[in-house]
Amino acid sequence: MSARGPAGAGPAAIQLSRIMRPDDANIAGNVHGGTILKMIEEAGAIISTRHCNSQSGEHCVAALARVERTDFLSPMCIGEVAHVSAEITYTSKHSVEVQVNVLSENILTGAKRVTNRATLWYVPLSLKNVDKVLEVPPIQYAWKELEEDGKKRYEEQKLERLVTKQRNGDIIFPVFNPDRQNKEPYTVGYSQSSLIHLVGPSDCTLHGFVHGGVTMKLMDEVAGIVAARHCKTNIVTASVDAINFHEKIKKGCVITISGRMTFTSNKSMEIEVFVDADPFVDEPKERYRAVSAFFTYVSLSKEGKPVPVPQLVVETEDEKRRFEDGKGRYLQTKAKRQVQMQPLTQQ
After folding, report:
1. Which residues are 295's β-sheet partners?
2. Taking Cα atoms as reference points, which of 98, 80, 112, 109 lies closest to residue 42?
3. What pTM does this model have?
4. Which H or E run contains 247?
5. Backbone Cα Rg of the chain
6. How far apart are CA 11 and CA 295, in angstroms?
7. Fewest Cβ atoms nearer than 10 Å: which of 10, 25, 179, 227?
């Protein structure tokens, strides 16, 4: 199914649908957040690549540069159908903004509910030269205000990417066989986790670089392990702060995905996840930081209700600093949510 959206030009909105299988979910039957993120990215990549090739000229593939904060509004379960719709809402000279909505459908009753909304930014890379960023065909806007709002969002994400890149030198040392018996429960070191993945052809685009959705799925897996080790209950992804893709990851690289807990509120946990790449094939060079993001998880009871999480025990000055930074992000998000809810309560 497709329909033209409010921007009024470019490729019509697209929709992808797939039934959720047991291998998409955790032991409680809740679909992994990483599975949803991967579907969101696939829809965004399709519509942005189509648009960037809609005019005659050099062919390209749209590469994911950034995913804005994404909230998981409702868990999706095995047997439900995920409907992922994507639409282009803004274009700059070298980037495309895509808005994605996810609906969950119970095919037995026909009931539908919104589970996710996401905003993604893509850049078109030439098929002939992966380091060459091509120009994006402009879209036509139904109203001037839509273009102005889009430009404002573009400038904001551009500034945030620069800020994130400045702090991107932080290090997480991989932990593969930690001696957890000698670590205090609920400390950062107790739950810190890492995963190693060799990038193969099935992970990659036509360019031979990793799909953004594949990376996000692996990041969510590591964040989920950290959260589960900390609270030892069923956990689900509640939100993902902006994900910044700093550098491309090439086929043949070995990537290390590392996660550590940074903050806990009464019922949520913030986990910082970094992806570092080791290029071994064709162009050997030093390990580099490719992606970084913050994931927020909640702990659920056997009945699927949110329950309090054990408070994080911080031991070092760096851990205390990261805890306070996480607290600031938590309070800022909480304040924004309250502002958004005010118009609804006043109706």
Report:
1. 240, 271
2. 98
3. 0.87
4. none
5. 20
6. 32
7. 179
Residues 281, 252: contact at Cβ < 8 Å? Answer: yes
User: How many Cβ atoms from other residues are within 10 Å of residue 60's Cβ?
Assistant: 25
pLDDT in tens, 81-93: 999 999 999 999 9
Residue 115, pLDDT score: 96
- Which tokens hold the place of 311? 């408070």
Nearest Cα neighbor of 293 from 161, 177, 148 is 161
Average pLDDT value for residue range 101-116: 96
Element (H, E) at 196: strand 193-198
Q: State the Cα angle at 197 between 99 and 46, rounded to 5°.
A: 25
pLDDT in the model for residue 344: 42
Considering the chain, what percentage of its residues have pLDDT values greater than 70?
A: 87
Closest CA to 11 of 60, 59, 44, 58: 44
Is 220 labeled as catalytic in the residue annotation?
yes
Which residue carries 């030093």 as its tokens?
Answer: 286
- Marked catalytic residue, from 24, 220, 241, 276: 220
| Tens-place pLDDT, residues 176-233 | 555 666 678 899 999 999 999 999 999 998 889 999 999 999 999 999 999 999 999 9
Active site residue 234: no
The one catalytic residue among 26, 168, 278, 325: 26
Phi, psi of 270 (to 5 degrees): -105, 130
Mean pLDDT of the residues in the chain: 89
- Is residue 41 within 8 A of residue 64, CB to CB? The reply is yes
